[in-house]
Amino acid sequence: MGVKIGILTSSRADYSIYYPLIIKAMELPNTHVEIIAFGTHLSKQHGYTIDHIIADGFEVKHQLDHCYALSDSPLGISLAMSNTSKVFAEFWNEHTFDLVFCLGDRYEMFAAVSAAVPYQINIAHLYGGERTEGAIDDCLRHAISLMSKWHFTACEDYKKRVEELTLQQNHVFNYGHLSIDNLNRLKLFSIEDLYKKTGVDFNIPTILCTFHPETINYQANADYAAEIAAAFHELKDFQVLITMPNSDTGSQPIRDAFSKIAASNSNIFTTENLGTIGYLSAMKHCTMMVGNTSSGFVEASFFPKTVINLGERQTGRIITSNIINTRITKNDILNAISKNRHNKYEEGKIQIYGNGQTAHLICEKIHKNILKHLYQS
Question: What's the average model confidence in pLDDT over 168-182?
Fold first, then answer.
């Protein structure tokens, strides 16, 4: 049978990051990789993104349904966590793995990993040590790190934080971010091909927007969405392509506001999911990014691309020279866009997240050290 490695993926976001690791892990000798898809991958409202995994040529051996929120209320999120924990309690009871990868800090991932604790499953966590003070993700991310045996961080600062948190210095490795591997490897769409996919002509100045709820202060999200929509309504010399938010507390008012503004403005477009190549291509060809997505901190640094970071969701992350922090008011957003629309950065200047060899380094560590250690323990 050989070595059996599981990949926990709960959303479009973590799958796109995992991609180069899945490819490399499948090349390891005497190793069998099984994808465990759950969360919004199986939600039709969020694009049923399990189809994207299958379209990439991967078998999704395990498809666990009923692990996503049916509403964006605190009760809906809490019930989703409970349901996910129950589903995975049964799953871990029926399936064994030598090593299981988890990624990030979402509530679905926390529930899946916490259900594994009584079974003493060897969990490898990507990407601990980060901070996002405007989201409940902070406590979930740190808890996942504490429940994991191995840790792969995106940069040196985050490595130090995981070492302090877990007291497992020998089990923490900084190999950079897998998204940089993706950007080095993938052939991105041309402007012409991107137009065919999205209907948006990136020859025209275009803002790429992804705005997720601030789950610490979720009651304010409707007001935030209204301010962003009001700002976009006044932008006549830009197009705006909006990717819809995650399934988080307070996401529905954001969805409603963005759908409404797109319906009444011919220069504003919304999409549920562009796919990995589509999203990275839109990032490459856009004029700037506006929102509060983590991709504005990691992937945007590759090009680099100007990022107008809105509000507090990502407070605590490392701020590189291409990121401009802005309050979520119409005037602040418009001023930030106006002042920074012509920013230019030297290509390859920002490299705190590695050089695109992350998947290779992780798999080398698995093959040479981690699996040997697990067999000896």
Answer: 95
